[in-house]
């Protein structure tokens, strides 16, 4: 046998093996699946202290301080350039750091500085500063939007505190490393709602998403309303107010739908809710719906505008604001009345300045019989024209209105163009001017005479009265 043959014979044949995908293992032999591992535990604060002792930390602190100074400078320059209204502006506030612009600029500058510095060294300070600045921007955005959208609301202060506490609590949990642990535990608390399984984590995340969507909708509507109402007066103001109210209602409706979708609620189920709301409007909510519809009717047909002087139910004042549900009327004494819009359509309303802002007023004075009528009329007109608020066109008119029992009664009528400033002060100034003119020209003011019956006598005796004073 040759060597080649011997070598060939010495090689043992290899048995064929089955492919790996054809191997079957009994299910009972497989180990049970382990539950998902929980997140990493709390971070070690000693590592943070060691990291803060590195020399590069001072570079980060100096860079962060430069970002703060640059953000303050930019906000100051923009504030001087635009001169915004601190009560209606979302970007600016009563101070440099009170608006949304400062934390937003500081956050953007910090992100840029972190991106540049991350290529040079390991970061420590910016890992803490970025979440803090993000929470500060979120707090200022939520608070300013609510302040502009719902001015002087009683529930606004508790909501602002809730937003602040929630944001700072989230930052504290993230920095301490507890946030993954808390979210993991909240995800384990579940319950069955129909065919959907909900957890506390899903509920919290959906609520936050809904809040963000509604805040953005309020922000956009407030910005559009401020732009529409800027420099608008008269009829244009009422029409733009109607458009702003309709746009806000539309944005809030769309935001509510998006918020419900983010929570996980099926919008097709709202058809039943819509039917229930329709029935509620037909029975219990019809007055509320009537007020809203009346508000849009008043604003669109412009039968009553902001700034008009009106009288309703013996209450007279100037229309200061027209809301979707009610109208605010401020009288000349400073009191405000909130009138439902339905009353303005169903009741009789006197609009004193619908076609003309001029208002006619009058004062009455009596003089003794025998006085010079022409002189009295001239003195009355001169007393009215001496006041700057009295219009020259049409001019004031003095009329002999009645032959009273005690003397001649004159009525002085005059027109003014600023009824919102009140009639009493002007009438007092005119009466004082009339009194001074009568004293100067010797005109006597009529004094009443009284006749009293004498007790035990057969005829009444005229009561003693002082003689008429000659002025």
From TrEMBL:
Protein name, per record: Small-conductance mechanosensitive channel
GO molecular function, one term: mechanosensitive monoatomic ion channel activity
Keyword Transmembrane included in the entry's annotation: yes
Annotated localization: Cell membrane
Segments forming domain Mechanosensitive ion channel MscS: 289-353
Keywords for this protein: Cell membrane, Membrane, Transmembrane, Transmembrane helix
Gene3D superfamilies: 1.10.287.1260, 2.30.30.60, 3.30.70.100
PANTHER family hit by this protein: MECHANOSENSITIVE CHANNEL MSCK (PTHR30347:SF1), POTASSIUM CHANNEL RELATED (PTHR30347)
Record-linked Pfam families: MS_channel_1st, MS_channel_2nd, MS_channel_3rd
Membrane topology type: Multi-pass membrane protein
């Amino acid at each position: 046998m040759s060597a080649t043959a011997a070598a060939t014979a010495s090689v043992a044949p290899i048995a064929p093996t089955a492919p790996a995908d054809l191997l079957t293992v009994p299910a009972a032999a497989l180990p049970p699946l382990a539950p998902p591992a929980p997140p990493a535990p709390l971070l070690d604060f000693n590592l943070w202290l060691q990291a803060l002792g590195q020399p590069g930390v001072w570079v980060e602190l100096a860079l962060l301080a430069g970002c703060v100074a640059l953000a303050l400078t930019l906000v100051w320059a923009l504030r001087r350039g635009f001169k915004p209204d601190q009560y209606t502006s979302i970007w600016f506030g009563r101070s440099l750091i009170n608006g949304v612009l400062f934390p937003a600029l500081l956050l953007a500058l910090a992100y840029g500085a972190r991106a540049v510095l991350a290529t040079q060294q390991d970061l420590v300070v910016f890992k803490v500063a970025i979440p803090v600045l993000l929470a500060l921007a979120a707090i200022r955005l939520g608070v300013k939007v609510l302040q502009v959208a719902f001015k002087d609301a009683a529930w606004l202060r508790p909501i602002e505190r809730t937003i602040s506490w929630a944001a700072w609590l989230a930052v504290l949990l993230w920095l301490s490393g507890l946030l993954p642990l808390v979210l993991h535990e909240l995800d384990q608390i579940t319950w069955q709602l129909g065919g959907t399984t909900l957890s506390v984590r899903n509920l919290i995340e959906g609520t936050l998403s809904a809040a963000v969507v509604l805040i953005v909708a309020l922000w956009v509507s407030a910005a559009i309303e401020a732009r529409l109402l800027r420099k608008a007066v008269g009829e244009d103001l009422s029409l733009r107010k109607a458009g702003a109210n309709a746009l806000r209602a539309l944005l809030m409706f769309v935001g509510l739908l998006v918020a419900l979708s983010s929570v996980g609620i099926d919008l097709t189920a709202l058809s039943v809710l819509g039917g229930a709301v329709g029935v509620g409007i037909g029975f219990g909510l019809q007055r509320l719906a009537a007020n809203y519809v009346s508000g849009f009717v008043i604003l669109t047909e412009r039968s009553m505008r902001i700034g008009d002087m009106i009288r309703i139910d013996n209450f007279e004042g100037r229309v200061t604001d027209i809301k979707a549900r009610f109208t605010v009327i401020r009288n000349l004494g400073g009191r405000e009345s909130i009138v439902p819009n339905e009353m303005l359509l169903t009741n009789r309303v006197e609009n004193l300045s619908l076609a003309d802002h001029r208002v006619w007023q009058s004062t009455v004075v009596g003089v003794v019989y025998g006085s010079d009528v022409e002189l009295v009329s001239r003195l009355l007109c001169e007393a009215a024209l001496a006041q700057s608020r009295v219009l020259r066109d049409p001019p004031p008119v003095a009329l002999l209105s009645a032959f009273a029992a005690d003397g001649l009664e004159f009525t002085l009528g005059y027109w003014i163009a600023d009824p919102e400033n009140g009639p009493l002060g002007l009438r007092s100034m005119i009466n004082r001017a009339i009194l001074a003119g009568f004293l100067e020209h010797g005109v006597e003011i009529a004094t009443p005479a009284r006749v009293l019956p004498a007790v035990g006598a057969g005829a009444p005796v005229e009561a003693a009265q002082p003689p008429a004073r000659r002025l």
